[in-house]
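TL;DR need structure tokens for one chain.
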Amino acid sequence: MAIDHDLEAGGHVGIPVLDDTAREAYRRRLAEIDDDIDEARRMNDPARVELAEQDREYLIAELTRAVGLGGRERTVGGSAGGSAERARTAVARSIKYAVDQLADHQPALATRFRACLKTGVYCSYVPDPMSPLDRRL
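>> reply
TL;DR here they are.
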């Protein structure tokens, strides 16, 4: 009898957090970043090295989230829940990446966003009422 590896406990079909195409795209991008780091080091460009290393750390963290215990592929619930979960995590990841990029140019504003942005099932910006926004930022 063949074992269906797509079944999770409880008999529900799970969808991989990352499919083969996405995983391969991450690997290609990591290889590009490694090449960029090597080139930046040869050109003695520490700012470029730092930015590329941040990108690399971010991608590795994303890949790590897609792997479960024992190196097994993580899955999310059935197709409707899986699509919603992938969309939710993509939005949260995009927001985090944008705020990280903002921090390079406006660190105080990025700090404020990190404190006031909430991601999860719903995303929201809830400003601290005790700390009014200085519109001169």
